[in-house]
Design a protein that fits this description.
CATH superfamily of the largest domain: P-loop containing nucleotide triphosphate hydrolases
CATH architecture of the largest domain: 3-Layer(aba) Sandwich
Oligomer: single chain
Order of helices and strands: HEHHEHEHEHEHHHHHHHH
Number of domains: 3
Number of strands: 5
Low-confidence stretches: 1-6
Strand content: 5-15%
Distance between the termini: 50 Å
Structural class: alpha/beta
Radius of gyration: 22 Å
Shape: globular
Number of helices: 14
CATH topology of the largest domain: Rossmann fold
Mean pLDDT: 89
Strand order of the largest sheet: 2-3-4-1-5
Largest sheet: 5 strands, parallel
Length: 319
């Protein structure tokens, strides 16, 4: 989907992104920016925000500023969501793919002269939502870039992006920030220290995901999901009934919750009586999450029935 018409707020890099931000500015000042950049890192740490800040910095007309200034013509167009030299591609719906026609439209725009006389920027997120045909359609823009044109790809699962794309991009990896840095930022943004600590723990140290938990009912939903998983392993809930309860919810998010639940189980309650079947089940969760992220046309009801039946077997099989 092309989001040129949507409102776009000016973004600043987060505290744990400062080193990468400084490197970006140095490359820009020295004229050493590549034509393709891939920012890779887990969801919930601000990878998309950094990509947005990069694109806005390039389209800002205040050349000596380290950040988008917010007052020049370019920034005003950005804030209005009408900058003609910024293109954003993302799936039309969560879990769907980025279609080849959207990529072809993008490459056609990138082949034209910048309307504001400066940079042309394309932001693609997540890059792994492109299928093989979409990736092939993007290759020409990466192989034969126009002057002052930058493609910024965001990826939460870089291994799912074809090597033909990755090899033509400069890849910058972002990791989960130091816990104290994330905690301090979250306290400043949201306050309420106890809620911050609880949310960060549930979010695996990912500060933006923790903030999302604090601003929504996600914590309650996660507790309910983990209680459902507990009930299955205790034999208090059938896999079929459990699958019926969750099959319309966000599979990617719940699979992530399930993986964190399993990790806590292995490193906590069951660390002294580990069952090898737990690790085999972990592999199944990772495969299922790969299917969900790939946009494969899977039947959620059948997927969850299979996973929950195998989860029950872990605790019914001989150890």
């Amino acid at each position: 989907m092309d989001l040129d018409s949507d409102q776009i707020a000016l973004a600043l890099p987060l505290p744990w992104q400062e080193q990468l931000w400084q490197r970006f500015n140095q490359r820009l000042e020295q004229g050493r920016l590549p034509h393709g950049v891939m920012l890779s890192g887990p969801s919930g740490i601000g990878v998309e925000r950094l990509a947005t800040a990069f694109s806005q910095r390039l389209l800002c007309n205040a050349e000596m500023s380290k950040y988008a200034c917010g007052s020049c013509k370019g920034c005003k167009l950005l804030m209005a969501g009408t900058h003609p030299d910024l293109s954003i591609l993302e799936p039309a719906d969560v879990g769907k793919g980025i279609l080849i026609d959207s990529v072809r439209n993008l490459t056609a725009r990138l082949g034209k002269t910048a309307q504001q006389g400066g940079w042309k920027v394309a932001l693609i997120s997540p890059a792994e939502a492109m299928n093989e045909s979409s990736c092939n359609a993007l290759l020409k823009s990466l192989e034969e870039p126009q002057s002052k044109t930058l493609l910024i790809l965001v990826s939460h699962r870089a291994s799912l992006v074809p090597a033909t794309i990755r090899s033509r991009c400069q890849i910058d990896h972002l990791s989960v920030p130091d816990l104290q840095v994330a905690r301090q930022w979250l306290i400043e943004v949201a306050g309420e220290q106890q809620a911050v600590d609880q949310s960060l723990e549930l979010a695996g140290g990912k500060p933006l995901l923790a903030l999302e938990y604090m601003q929504s009912d996600s914590i309650e939903q996660r507790h309910m999901f983990e209680q459902l998983v507990d009930n299955i392993r205790l034999g208090d809930l059938s896999p079929m009934s459990a699958a019926q309860q969750v099959q319309k919810l966000n599979s990617d998010q719940m699979l992530d919750w399930f993986m964190h639940y399993l990790h806590r189980l292995v490193t906590g309650e069951m660390q002294n009586s580990l069952n090898p079947a737990l690790f085999e089940f972990g592999d199944q969760l990772r495969k299922a999450r790969g299917w969900a992220l790939s946009g494969s046309n899977i039947n959620p009801q059948l997927m969850w029935e299979g996973l929950f039946m195998d989860w029950l077997k872990v605790f019914r099989s001989p150890r």
